[in-house]
Amino acid sequence: MNLTLEEIQNFKGKYPKQIWSLFFSEMWERFCFYGMRGMLVFFMISQLKFGDEQANLQYGATQAFVYAFTFVGGLFADKILGFRRSLFWGGILMIIGSLILAANPHDYFFLGISFTVVGTGFFKPNISTMVGKLYKPNDTRTDAGFSLFYAGINLGALLGGYLCIAIGKGEMFSHLIPESKRWNVAFGLAAIVMVVSLINFIFTQRSLGPIGLAPQKINKDGSFSPLEKWKEYGVYTLSLIFIPLIMIMVSVPQYTDYFMWTVGPLTLLYLFYEMTKVTAPERKKLWAALIFIIFSILFWGIYEQSGGSLSIFAANNLNKDLFGLDPNGVNNSGGAFFIIFLAPLVGLLWIWLSKKKLEPNTINKFGLGFIFLGLGYYILFGTKFFANLQGITSLNIFTIALLVITFGELCLSPIGLSIMTKLSTEKLQGMMMGMWFLASAYGQYVAGQIGAGLAKVKSGATNHDALITYTDGYKQLGLYALIAGVILILISPFVKKLMQGVK
Ligand code: GLN
């Protein structure tokens, strides 16, 4: 099945058929990633005997590094490996990381995690870029495709996020797995699904035509030849060298601060350098992409309270009025649950609106994303009006807030992936996707700072005082999100000009 790019992109119907294979590879990868992520803090506290604060700081550091490495992964994919090989290499590193953790999570915890950090950096941005390649630059069905892909992401997140920790804690299959082996099996499961992801990708490759092949060198006579092999092996070696470095960096949280303060400016400088090499219209599009990237930092900074302050809020201030469900479980997986159902519907809504010429453009979708996020945070604030004297309030209302926030996420996150592929030049696709995720690294970082600020409830304060402090904080965040949404909508004519017809 040797398809040309033309044949792939000229598909009939709503979705290109290759999207399903990418959907499944990404679903299993996210299973592995979120499965592991969901175990980190719990494992560090219960097994490695870390204090709460240290465990949280180290969790934050791993998250920041994971997303920061997507930039490196994207960059090397553009310049040397191509998307397919990068994805493979990343997948193999993730498998090795999970196997190390499966073999001996207690002694080699940070080694295993560091393999996963670098592996995700090579896998995550590049599979997303390949989804974009299935579409012609101005195909109005692209956003819907990314919404579907996003459902796959969250299906994996939901399954992995639930199963791995449940096995590790002995809440599932405890009669089959001896107690001393539970964590090994839980991490082992992450390795198995990652193998499934790669096997699935091997079959997918056949239908991808030229998409994701390694870049080639242009010779003087205009012909193409493959890049030198040492460059490819150089990337592999370099990424292995990064692993012990990350182990050191993650172990001292302060290093993460230094890292974050240096990496961002350096990346920007590099982007500006690349911008000097493109044409003026291409440069304008890259500026537009940068605007989206910068706003997304604020979005994730607010959104990612879910892993931090909201999980403390869920543990201390919520009842179980939603079918008796555990509030932390709802906080962890409610968003993913809603997305699986809503993402395909929202995708179809975009296609339907575009047929009626009513589809909001990307910048307005981003604006809407912030507005939903803001409204969701106002609902979180509103939970305080349903609280009892002990400061315990309704999980139902909290879940409604999650639903509204999820709508916001769907207007921004899959759309962001889609627009990165459309605004980048051919040679900067991977790097720009990496930058999009790098913004998530900063989002996580900012989220940690905001969360830590909120957590500073004075000692001696009651649970009710804590409720007031948290909900007031959420009102503030809701306001910031609304302001950002309004700003985006106000600057939309200007950004539209920069985008030059890209929607
Ligand atoms: N939840 C999405 C994913 O895992 C988005 C992550 C992000 O960009 N922060 O892909």
UniProtKB/TrEMBL annotation:
PROSITE patterns: PTR2_2. It comes from the Bacteria. InterPro entries: Dipep/tripep_permease, MFS_trans_sf, MFS_Transporters, POT_fam, PTR2_symporter_CS. GO terms for biological process: oligopeptide transport. The keyword GTP-binding does not apply. GO terms for cellular component: plasma membrane. GO terms for molecular function: peptide transmembrane transporter activity. Keywords: Cell membrane, Membrane, Peptide transport, Protein transport, Transmembrane, Transmembrane helix, Transport. It is a multi-pass membrane protein. It is found in: Cell membrane; Membrane. The keyword Transcription does not apply. The chain crosses the membrane at residues 31-51, 57-77, 86-103, 109-127, 148-168, 183-203, 233-252, 258-274, 286-303, 335-354, 366-386, 392-412, 433-457, 477-495. Belongs to the major facilitator superfamily. Proton-dependent oligopeptide transporter (POT/PTR) (TC 2.A.17) family. This is Proton-dependent oligopeptide transporter, POT family. The lineage of its organism: Bacteria, Pseudomonadati, Bacteroidota, Flavobacteriia, Flavobacteriales.
